[in-house]
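QA checklist item 7 of 12: single-chain prediction sanity check.
[x] sequence parsed
[x] length recorded as 148
[x] structure emitted
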Amino acid sequence: MATKHKRSIGTGRLMGVTLLLLMVAGTEPVATAQANSAAGEQTARKDRRVQVHVKAVTTDGKALPSGSTVEISGTETACGPLSTNDARATLDDKGEAVLRDLPGCRVAVKVNLAQYLPVRKVVDLGASKPCAEGGGACETVSLVLDPQ
């Protein structure tokens, strides 16, 4: 009788372990697929190259100081080196600049000029539309500077 009792406890434990393994095995492929999908999306965004057109204007109508620059910083890991090294461009006399070949990730576009309040705008370059002039993706960013 003692043998029969031990056998039923062993079978119950075996069934419990089997059910636990089935539950884990049932959820693991879904979690793995979601992780792989997210990683693939990050890679696709990082590999996408975007051309950014920046237009800066002042509310007081004055021209921007000569040599004014715009900086773009990466705000996520998909930005790669842009996360630690800003891309910079000099604004022309119309307050415009073009930065090419940036990764398709979330970035901060910044202008910090003397006599004006700093401006920072976050833009998701991964959602950029195709350029009108053909190949690649383009994003236009408008910045409005207020005097201090």
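[x] summary fact logged: Confidence is low (pLDDT under 50) at residues 17-46.
[ ] second reviewer sign-off
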